[in-house]
């Protein structure tokens, strides 16, 4: 292998090393943006499953042409067993995980909801160990790092959930209120705010996301 090829390979590895962390940061930024926009939609009266239908319909229309072009050979491998796993995957990932997440978001707030998103990796890790899909291996360095990472996720979530600071308004403040009230008139948008019910919805969403990630192993 000549020097030029070695340099090119090093540049590719360096680019991948930079793009992977950057892509993870962008995913988190897009997730937070979608979370806030979803909360604003619920505050003005949109139903969770209506937003869920619009979201997935838009995503399907956008991704379908690329899937048919780049993954058309995969259609030869599709059978009843595959369709069954796809249906189970959609049930846990779309109907349960996202549906319960939206109902929990409508009943609580964006800052509270994001805590449950941060706990999903920990719950997935614990369930995978219980189902013997993954081994802990606490005596090895990777095993110790997994435990430390899980503890950091839980600790960070607890700190954020207990923190109380000043509200930062980046848009008209009336959009942040569950009820839109005008002078001398009541709002036509019902108030769904209930922290207890919202927490139960979010906990169910967290479990559904965990099982969704585990189910995807069978589809990989």
Q: Could you walk me through the main structural features you see in this protein, from its secondary elements to its overall organization?
A:
Keywords: Membrane, Transmembrane, Transmembrane helix. With 220 residues, the chain is an all-alpha fold. The chain is 73% helix and 0% strand. It has 6 helices and no strands. The longest helix is centred in the N-terminal third of the chain and has 41 residues, at 3-43. It is globular. The chain starts with a helix and ends with a helix. The model is unreliable at 179-186 (pLDDT under 50).
Helix content: over 70%
Order of helices and strands: HHHHHH
Which stretches are low in confidence, meaning pLDDT under 50 for 5 or more residues running?
Answer: 179-186
Overall pLDDT: 79
Number of helices: 6
GO molecular function, one term: transmembrane transporter activity
InterPro entries: EamA_dom, EmrE-like, WAT1-related
Keywords: Membrane, Transmembrane, Transmembrane helix
Pfam families: EamA (PF00892)
Show the helix and strand layout.
Layout lengths: L2 H41 L4 H23 L9 H28 L2 H21 L10 H22 L32 H25 L1
Helix pairs in contact: 3-6, 4-5, 4-6
Summarize this, please?
This protein is mainly α and 220 residues long. Helices cover 73% and strands 0% of the residues. α3 runs antiparallel to α6.
Task: Kindly list the characteristics that best describe this protein.
about 220 residues; mainly alpha; globular
